Amino acid sequence: xxxxxxxxxxxxxxxxxxxxxxxxxxxxxxxxxxxxxxxxxxxxxxxxxxxxxxxxxxxxxxxxxxxxxxxxxxxxxxxxxxxxxxxxxxxxxxxxxxxxxxxxxxxxxxxxxxxxxxxxxxxxxxxxxxxxxxxxxxxxxxxxxxxxxxxxxxxxxxxxxxxxxxxxxxxxxxxxxxxxxxxxxxxxxxxxxxxxxxxxxxxxxxxxxxxxxxxxxxxxxxxxxxxxxxxxxxxxxxxxxxxxxxxxxxxxxxxxxxxxxxx
Length: 263
Description:
Helices cover 44% and strands 16% of the residues. By secondary structure, the protein is α/β, with parallel strands linked by helices.
């Protein structure tokens, strides 16, 4: 399989520390708008990129987590500054783990947001329901805009609202079905549960208490597998902590990065 072309990306801010933002299967770099603003205000240079097949990029024949990680490593080659930090959300967290695994000396710190280290974390019944709820509507002829916004609301905590949530739901309506289906397949094929033990850099695992897609208990276990892992659980929050409770989310991440980069 030929390498994926470099993704569509945007650069914001100016710093010798560059933070790369990797989005989930539902989304794109565009849904990080408010997160980008916060990190730039905190003094980081931010690069947010699209996964292959998202937004203007071509849909590849196949999609895999290791392949996406290799693409991100080439993007880092082309755009990095003195220090590199990764923040991966959901599918992006799987990719971020593999980026660090492929090139361990390059990543100064890693933030894993509402993600897992293997698709085999909760048994076959959970796996079947995950695939059914996400892919079945597309095979029945529905567009992502027809069902995904309502589905995403069920993945959030009660009362989730605000500009971050509105912006995320707006961007999800513009996703391409074929790319999303390939992304779900890539997630389902990712079972590299030995990766966390090889992550020697500081790692923050940040989870929502109510997240059933990437349960807090799984993320706590993952943090324990990382030699320098930390865990934070956001009470009353679902899968989208950066949008559901942005003040807490960014405070926790900023505190972690300040300590990790100082060391």
